[in-house]
Task: structure prediction
Amino acid sequence: MKELITMAFRQVRGIQKIHLPEESPPMFTNTVENLREVLSIHRVDHILIEGNRHSFYVMFSNDRWIGVTTDRNVNEVIIRAALERAVKFLEKHSQVEQRMKHIKRDIEEYFVSVGVDARVRRINLSVESDSVSGKIQLSAREGRAEAVKEQLRQFLERQLPYFIKNKVDIIIEKQGLLDRITRDQLLRIIRRVERL
Amino acid sequence: MKAKILVTGAFNAGKTTFIRSISEIDPVYTDKKMLDTEELTTVAMDFGRITVDDTISLYLFGTPGQERFDFMWDILKEDIIGFILLVDSITPNMDVTLRMLKFFSEHSDAPCVIACTKQDHKDALPVETIQKQLNMDTVPVLPCVATDKVSVKKVLLTLLHDILEKIH
Result:
């Protein structure tokens, strides 16, 4: 997660330290949480505290917060824009995490909607700070591998936000009997034919 | 879910009759009269259906028997779960039958059964003789009367159970 936040602050000079809930000492975290409570009364989601040499800026978003200590002379507008960018990154990251939970179903539904005859066999993906990586194994008809791969690539590009560096290997295997019918479906057919 | 079974065999093996005997709908025929004999022959494919429930249907597709329509095999073999190869027990066309068996076995992983049709005819060769001529002991070879629903059902069930074993 840290890399993602750092990415949002890449253009800003004078950053001393980035503070995140999971990396800050409990006392610091408690102070920030108290601050959130106070600010929520005034319906404010960010605050700048200026010291003699440094400034501290914190922004709240849903259940998390991002704080940053900067040199005194760094422009507040720039810091705020970077924090907003970081929050957006985090939101997109959690969106990707959510999408990954249903990726198998989404891919299958997508294939049906575009009329691609392919099935998802196995998915082994992990979401990292700035990328999704892993393997997607599909089965498709002979001679359709490249077309199916391209369709899936396009789908993944649309599903994943722009900052995600895609490192997904798509493996296409030849369709087998089990891709065409399940044991349960076949048993139902047999029972029906027996009744004819 | 649409399960597809192919009914194939040489010219006049009884593919259209086989499908007609078991299909719950009037099969879609693409039969045309032959110029020389006025007999009917299938020029594209026969098609029959057995509905299991709202979600599953079993479709039977018949291949055209004449050699000039062999290009259809490649299209019809797609997505099949099994195929039934019919052999005319009176005049078995072994060359074509073996060619069909080779083609579908090589281009599909679907299980197969061989049904020797016209077994009710007095001139029908015994199943064992046909099996010997085919030199085939890995595939079930069954007697069949394509006009008889019970006989057709038996062939179909043999194939379905064979598929079941394969996806165990």
